[in-house]
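Record format v2
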Amino acid sequence: MKFIISLFLVYSSTLSSQSINAIYEYENLSKEEVFQINLTINNNEALSIFKPIKVLNDSVFVGECDDINFNLEGSDSIGRQYYQNLNKKIIIFRDFIYENSEFKPVIVNESYPDFEWKFRSEQKIIGDFNCNLVNLNFRGRDYSVWYTEDIPTPFGPWKFNGLPGLIVKITSLDKQINFQLIEINTNYIKDIIVPENGDKISFKEYVDYKNKTVDEFIEKLKAKLPRGAIVSVKVGDDKNIEKSFD
Amino acid sequence: MIKILRNLLIRLVYSFFVFLILPNDMYSQTILKGNLINELNQAIPYSTVVLKDTIDQSIITYGFAKEDGAYILETSEKGSFILSFSALGYATRTVLLIIEDTTSEITTNLILNEESLTLNEVVVHADKSITISNDTINFKTNFFTNGTEQSVEDLLKKIPGLSVDSQGTIKVGNQEIEKLMVDGDDLFERGYKVLSKNMPAYPIEEVEVLKNYSNNRLLKGIEESDKVALNLKLNEESKRIWFGNLVLGYGLVSQNRYELKGNLMNFGKKNKYYFLTNLNNTGYDAIGDIQSLIRPLRLNEPGVIGDNATVTNLINLSGTIPNFKRQRSNFNNSELLSLNAIFNPIEKLKIKTLAFFNADELQFFKNSIETIGVNNVDFVNSEEYQLNNKNKLGFGKFDITYTISKTKTLEATTKYTTGTEDNRSNLIFNGLSTLENLKNNNTFFDQKIRYSNKFKGNKVFLLTGRYIQEESPQQYAVNQFLFEDLFATSNIDNVKQTINNEMQYLGLNAHFLDRRKNENLLEAQVGNEYREDLLNTVFQLLENDTTIKLPLGYQNQINYQTNDLYFKGKYSVKLNDFSLINSIEVHHFLTSFKSSNVTETQKSFYINPSIGFKWKINAKNKFVGNYSYNTTNPKTLDVYDGYVLTGYKSFQKGTTDFNQLDNSSIVLNYELGNWSDRFFANAIITYNKNFDFFSTNTFLSQNYTLSEKIKIKDREFFSGNTKVDYYFKPISSNLKLDLGVSKSNYKNSVNSADLREVNASTFNYGLELRSGFKGFFNYHLGTKWSTNSIKTTFTNKYTDNISFLDFTFIFDSELDFQIQSERYFFGSLATDNNYYFLDFNARYKIFKNKLTFTLTGKNLFNTEIFRQIAISDIGSTTTEYRLLPRFVILKMEFRF
C-alpha cells in the first residue's frame, strides 16, 4: 500500500510539469485601451486574464460636464479572460457585449481558430530571448509575431496558440495592436479556473453583437454633442482586435 | 463479441492502408513519430517537436506531443534535417535525420533529461512605446506615427487616450488639458490651440501626459488637483526651427471685409519665441485669443491672492446686445500684435516675457424707446445712438522662476498695462442732438512674489506677497444740459464729469498644506490684505468752456481703506465614495472711510463657515452639495456719498453705510446615469439668501435719473435646472430636454416712495434633436422658449423663442460644409418680431495641413436691424440694433 501511494505521487508530480506565468502589456491604440495580460500556462491549459491599466482605460469623448468617466469596453472586477485547452482544442472566453445600452459579461465557447503562421527567417534577441519571426493574418489584421523556442510552449496570450515557443512580441501592421512580454516567472503554481460568471452565448451570437456595438456607440455619442461641435468618424473603421469573423 | 472484434480488425487494417500507402503514393509524405519519456520512464506530455533545416535552422514543420508523450509529424521534404525536442523543465535535445525519397516513416524515441527552467521574475526590457510612472505617461512618438502627420494636432490624435475635437480642443479622457508645454516651457496657457494647430509634428520625439497636474511643481500630489497637462519633448536636431501659419481673408461680394492672422514661432532648448498678429474687421475679437495669457484665471489655487483687486469704472459706454452673438453687431477694425518669449539662461532660472499691443476701432448703433410707468410717473423717451470707440492697449508681463533646490522655488511676476480709450457718441434724445465724449486711461502695475518650500511627508509651505497699483481716470463730457429741474441755474449749456479712481493693494499670505497618509488634506492660511481706494469725482456745469457751478452733493473725495487680517482652515476627508470638505474663515477687518463729510473707522470680526460633500452613491447616482455662510465687506463703489454722472442722463451714488453684508447659500446637484448612457439626467438647485443687501432708491424723471444705493434686509434667489438626454436608436438621434426656472425677490424704492416688493421670475424650456449618422450628412435642430415676468406695483410678462437648424456635410477629410440658421421670435413685439439668420462655412484642404481654403458667409439673409425688448421693474425698453450686413469672405490658410 505504501508503495502504491509513493508511485502515485511521483507520477502526478511529473504530470504537472513546470508552469509558467507570463505578463504582457497589451495595447489597442485606436481603442485607447492598455491592458496587462497575466498568462498562466499549466500543462495543456492556459489562461489569459486582462487587467486594465487604469490611467489609459478611460475612453475618449467630448463631454459637457467635467466629471464623466466612461468606458467603451465593458468591464467589471473579473474582466476579460481567455482560456485555452490544447486537448479539447477549444477556447472559452469571458468578454462583454453591448445590449440595451448596457454592457454585460458573456461566456463564449470557440473552437481553436486556424492560425496560419508564416515562418520568416528573421531573428533577433529581445530581452534575453532568441526570437524568431512569423507573420500571421488573423480576423482582418496582419501581425508580426516574435516567439522564442527558449520557452517551449504552444500557448500565447489572448487566443494565440500553436507556435513552437512562447510569444514575446506582437505588432499589427497598422501598429495599433501591440503585445509585449514584460515579465516571466517559472516558479509559479496556480490553478487554472475556466472563466465563469456570465451568460453563455454561442460564438455566432457573440460575433453578431460585436459587429453592432461600435456603430451604435458612435452614433449615440455624436448625437449628444452640443451645438457647433463637429466630429467626423470614419465609416466602417473597426477598431477591435478582431475586425472580421469570416 | 467476435463480431465486434472482427469489425475492429477490419478497421485497423483499413486504417493501416490509408495511413501508410495512400500518403506515400500521392505526396510521398514521411512520417516522423515516436515517444518522449523522462529518466523515470514516464511520458513527457505536450513537448514541442520541431523539424529544422540543418543549414539555416528554418522551420520545416513542427508539432506537439500528446498527453501520453507520443508525437507525429509529417513532411514531404527530403534531405538532412535536425529534429529538436523541447519541453518545459527538460533540456532540449536534437537529433540529426536524413529523409530519403523512399523513407516513409522514422521513429525516434527519446529520453529527455530534467533540467528545470528557472526564470524568476525575468523582466524583459523592451523598447516600449508607452511608459507609465505615477502620474506621467510617456509616449515615444515614432511608435504611433506613420509619417502623414503634419501638425502637432495630427500627432496627438494618434496618441491613445488623447482626442482633439474639430475646434482643436485637446482632451485627455473627457477632460480638457490645462496647458500644452514644449520641453517643460509653457508659452500659451489655455490658448494652446495656436501651438497644436501650427507646430509641425516631426520635431517631437515624445509626448508626456501629466495627470493630477499642479502649476506649482512642489504642490504636486498635495493640493487637490484633477488637472491634466501635456508636454512635448523635441528631438535634438529639430530644435531651433521657425514655423507658423498665415491666414489671409478678403470679402468677395460685400463691402470690404478682411482678415489677416499670422503665427510665427521658434523653440530652442534655451530660448523659445512666439509672435502672433491678427488684423480684422469681421467682428472677431482677437484679444480673446490671448486673454488667458494676460489674466490667467486661477481660482482656489494655493498661493494666489489679490486676483480680484481691480478698479471698476463708473462710466461705461461700450455697446453689446444681450443674449446675442457679439460678432454680428461688432463693427470693428482690430490690430493686434503679441510677442512672447521664454529664456532659460541657466538650468535653475526661467524667464518668461509677454508683450502685446492692440488697437481697435469699434462702432455700435442702436435706437431705443423707453417706456416708464411706475408710481404715477409716466413718460416715453426715444434715443438714436451711435457710438464710435477708439482704443489702444499695451501690456507687458515678466515672469521669473528660480529653482533654489529640489524642494524650494522662488517665483516673481511683474505686469504692466496701459490703455487709452476714446469714446464718442452721437445721439438724438427726444429729438435733441447730443454728443458724448468719454476718455479713459488705465494703468495697472502688478508685482507678485511667491516662495514655495516642500517638507518631508507631503507638507508644503507657500509664502506669497503681492502689490497692485491701478489708476483709471475718466473724463466725460456731454454737450447738453438736461438737468434744469435739478439745478436751478441758468445759462448752462454743457456738463463735465471728471473721475479719478485709484487703488492700491498689498497682500501677504502664508499657506500650509498637509496631505496626510490617509489621503485627507489639511490646509491652513494666515494672511493680511490691505486695500486703499481713492475716488475723486468732480461734476461741473458749464457755459461753453467756463465752469459755472460745482453742485453740492455731486462731488466726491473718498479715501476708503480696508485691512483684512484672516485665518482660513480647510479639511477634506474621504471615506470610500463619500467625501466631506469643511472650511472656516475668520476675518478681522479694520475699515476706515473718509469723505469730505464723514470720517469713520470701524473694527469688525466675523466667521465664514462652509461645508460640502460629494457622494457617489453608485455608478449611476452622484450627489454633490454645499452650504456656506458669508460675510462680505462693501466695495468703494457701494459707499461713495456724492452723485456721479454715469450716463448722459443718469446719476448714481453709493451709501455711506459700510456695514458688512451677510448671506448664505446652498447648492445641490444630482446626476443620474453617465453622460454616455442612453439616458442621462442632471438636476441642480441653488438657493441664496441675502440677509442684507444693497438695493436702490431711484428718482425718475423724463430727462434724468438719480439712483442711490440703500441697504435693506432680505433678498432671496432661487434657481432650478434640469437637463435630460435620451438617445433614440431607431433614428440614431439624441433628444435633449432643458427645463429651468428662477425666481428672485427683493425690495426697492422709486421716487422716495415706500419700499415695494419686486418679484422677478424666468421660466425656460427647450428641446434639441441631433443626429449621429455615420454618413456624410448630419442635422441638429433645437428650440427654446423663455418667459420673463416682473411683478411689482404692476405686472410685465413676455415670452421669446429662439430656434436653430444646422446641417453638416463632411464629404471626406478634404471637403466639408456647414450651414447654420437661426430664428428669433419676440412675443412682446407687436410687429417685426421675427428675425432670421443664415451662415455657412465651406472648407477645402488642397494640401493636407499646408494649404486650406475656406469660404465663410455671414448673415446671408442680410438682416440689418435687430429689435429686442427688455422689461424691468420700472417699465420696458424696445431697442433696435444695427448689425453687420451680409458678407462672404474667402480665406486662405498657409502653414510653413
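Helices of chain B lie at 2-26, 152-157, 193-198, 291-294, 636-639.
Chain B has five helices and 49 strands.
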